[in-house]
């Protein structure tokens, strides 16, 4: 039975959505994860801290670590928020064509900004999160009016078609298992003329369309009039199933983040659903809100904070903090200074988001 949704914009804000978006961005942009890297370099905490530190960077070709979940989480949460945003605009009197036009304009500017971040003097790439969103957002938006079964069908079709192309691309020397020698690389070479230095490919936008579409489906579930426990289980159970199925298929269909293989999309999408379900249960069912609100604030200006960080905001904050932390904590050695500096810089990032929030300054495309 499909969920019956409400378009009443006055309904209580679902804090778990803001929290999930906020904590994902906080981990990605604030640099707080580097604390574990510094501790591991100094040999503090032994194998436990070293294991956590390893999770703060992308895995190699066939590896999957926590850091490899960040972009899928962000794309997923964009999808979750989409039905709420559209319902609010329709409720205030906007026509569907007007909302669609806004979505297309937003995608255009995401593509422009993504090109700006990915371009160098003699090359350019569309592999960072902004152009990937630009390419998937309007498709997910237009699918949103279809029944959930058709949205799911399109999402799985995108995954299957992508994998079939990787496995069967009839160009000599190209196959799924080789970095820079696969279908996605072939597409980039014949469109941009460049190969990404870390093996990412633009074609990832096709299979990862599933992440944002699944987010839209979960958003509809959260907007529905179902009991909260039913919403929770409807999100959690498919998430667990996706992780189990994805890992079970791993020996036959490798999990490869750089080309968003089908198993990678399914596993990371499953983890996103589990994260969303647990956030919803703790925050909106158990009403545990004080700490989640701390992170929710960080998600109020996502595009601005992402651009600020990518354009050197972290380095700027680091330069501002270091003269103070090095003098106040220099007695404890380099590791202590570095850890305190990282924490201060993360706090500066958070305060920037809080400053904008308190003054009701929200940058939107």
Number of helices: 14
Order of helices and strands: HHHHHHHHHHHHHH
Q: End-to-end span in angstroms? A: 35 Å
Helix content: 55-70%
How many domains in all? 1
Shape verdict: globular
Main sheet summary? none
- Whole-number mean pLDDT: 90
- Are there runs of 5+ residues with pLDDT below 50, and where? 6-11
Which structural class do you get from the secondary structure elements? mainly alpha
How many extended strands? 0
Radius of gyration: 21 Å
Beta content: under 5%
Annotation keywords:
365 residues, mainly alpha, 14 helices, 66% helix, globular
Question: How would you portray this structure in words?
Answer:
- This protein is an all-alpha fold and 365 residues long.
- It has one domain.
- It is 66% helix and 0% strand.
- It is built from 14 helices and no strands.
- α4 (70-91) crosses α6 and α6 packs across α9 (209-223).
- The protein is globular, with a radius of gyration of 21 Å.
- 42% of the residues are buried.
Give the gist of this structure:
With 365 residues, the chain is mainly alpha-helical. The protein has 14 helices and no strands. It starts with 14 loop residues before the first helix and ends in a 7-residue tail after the last helix.
Detail the topology: elements first, then pairings:
Elements: H1 15-29, H2 34-41, H3 46-54, H4 70-91, H5 96-118, H6 129-143, H7 148-168, H8 183-191, H9 209-223, H10 228-248, H11 262-285, H12 290-296, H13 302-329, H14 334-358
């Amino acid at each position: 039975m499909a969920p019956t949704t409400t378009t009443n914009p006055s309904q209580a804000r679902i804090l778990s959505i803001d929290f999930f978006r906020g904590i994902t961005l906080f981990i990605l942009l604030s640099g707080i994860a580097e604390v574990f890297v510094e501790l591991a370099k100094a040999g503090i905490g032994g194998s436990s801290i070293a294991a956590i530190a390893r999770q703060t960077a992308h895995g190699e070709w066939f590896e999957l670590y926590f850091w490899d979940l960040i972009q899928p989480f962000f794309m997923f949460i964009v999808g979750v928020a989409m039905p709420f945003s559209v319902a609010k605009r329709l409720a205030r009197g906007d026509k569907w064509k007007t909302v669609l036009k806004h979505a297309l304009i937003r995608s255009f500017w995401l593509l422009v900004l993504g090109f700006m971040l990915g371009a160098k003097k003699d090359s350019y790439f569309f592999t960072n999160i902004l152009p990937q969103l630009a390419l998937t957002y309007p498709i997910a938006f237009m699918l949103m009016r279809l029944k959930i079964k058709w949205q799911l069908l399109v999402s799985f079709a995108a995954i299957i078609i992508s994998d079939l192309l990787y496995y069967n691309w009839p160009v000599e020397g190209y196959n799924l298992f080789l970095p820079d020698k696969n279908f996605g690389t072939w597409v980039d070479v014949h469109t941009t003329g460049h190969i990404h230095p870390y093996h990412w490919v633009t074609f990832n936008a096709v299979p990862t369309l599933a992440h944002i579409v699944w987010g839209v489906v979960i958003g509809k579930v959260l907007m529905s009039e179902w009991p909260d426990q039913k919403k929770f289980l409807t999100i959690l159970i498919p998430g667990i199933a996706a992780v189990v199925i994805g890992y079970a298929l791993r020996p036959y269909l490798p999990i490869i983040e750089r080309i968003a293989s089908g198993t990678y999309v399914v596993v990371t999408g499953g983890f996103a659903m589990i994260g969303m379900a647990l956030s919803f249960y703790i925050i909106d069912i158990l009403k545990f809100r004080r700490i989640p609100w701390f992170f929710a604030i960080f998600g109020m200006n996502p595009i601005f904070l992402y651009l600020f960080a990518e354009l050197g905001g972290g380095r700027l904050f680091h330069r501002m903090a270091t003269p103070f932390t090095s003098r106040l904590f220099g007695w404890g050695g380099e590791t202590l200074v570095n850890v305190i500096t990282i924490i201060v810089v993360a706090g500066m990032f958070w305060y920037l988001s809080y400053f904008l929030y308190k003054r009701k300054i929200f940058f939107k495309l």
